[in-house]
Amino acid sequence: MERGSATAGRRGATIREVAHRAGVSIKTVSRVVNNEPNVRPETRQSVQKAVSELDYEPLPAARGLAGRRTFSIGLLYENPHEFSYIQRLLEGAYAACEKTGHALLLRPCTDDLTSAMVRQFVRQTRVDGVLLTAPIADRSDVTSLLVETGIAFAQVSPRDTNPLWTSVGPDDAEASRALTDYVLALGHRRIGFVKGDPKHGASHKRLAGHLDCLRNQGLEADSALIVDGNFDFDSGKRGFHALWQLPHPPTAIIACNDDSAAGVVVAAHERGIGIPATLSVAGFDDSPTATHTWPALTTVRQPIAAIAFRATELLIANIAGEPPRQEAFDCDLVARASTAKPARLVKTGS
Fold this sequence. Notes:
Layout: H1 15-22, H2 26-33, H3 41-54, E1 72-78, H4 83-100, E2 103-109, H5 115-125, E3 129-133, H6 140-149, E4 152-156, E5 166-170, H7 172-185, E6 191-194, H8 201-216, E7 226-227, H9 233-244, E8 252-255, H10 258-270, E9 280-282, H11 288-292, E10 299-301, H12 304-319, E11 326-329, E12 332-334, H13 343-348
Parallel strand pairs: 1-2, 1-3, 3-4, 4-5, 5-11, 6-7, 6-8, 8-9
Antiparallel strand pairs: 10-12
Helix pairs in contact: 1-2, 1-3, 4-12, 7-8, 9-10
């Protein structure tokens, strides 16, 4: 990923277009724009001609402009269903910025976010780099814009990693395997799974980990036991009702996050179904909801603040010239009262 370049000019020209017009690399354009040495005179002239023809003007905050650093980091995020997630993420990012003398500028986003809005945010704030949280981290239009404009960025919990980009996230697939393995070890064989928001990479990774664990245990996945969800309470309730009306309902349900797991628990209580006596329930994230639900939820704790801190730390290092890195954090299984052996095993004393 290129740093020290610039964003579009007055008429929307990008550094990529200048490079194409001049027949050089983006890095060469950056060197010419920043008046760096070691550029051949004919190459410099060609780039300057392309800059003039395209009316290209770099951002004042571009990293390569000597003495124009703003020492500020932008953070783009969508309001999550569970606010504690973004709260811990902000705490981690802020701590890293405070440690390194950077300001943290927030940009809340909604579903109608466009790359033009991101461009405007970068130009107005003149940030040195941008943190992209899920699901924005997986928006190809946003990442393409930042690459083209030479603004450094780091992805927090993306679905896929790119060796050219900085990214940090939890090992969702491995954590989901561990959670499923724990439920299987209790003796459950029919395990329902409520998926998360399909826009989030975590939803796909957690389902993949669940299915992988079943395969490793020699169990065939039943598609009827996997239902849609959206990382929220209501989708958890809907998921429970869809699973409980099956001819052979599950003895355990794993939800893709704690909010939807709480929806499963409440829906089960409304039907008079005992938890965990009749149905075991597990969630993911270890949000405050996990301990506010009765009984308290078995879940997976991901170090959200630590992930955000590290992503910010690596972004700042990347801005300073260090190569991009990709890192994954381990998660911890937290066993609580919402899971137990299935009733048939309890009755037989197994």
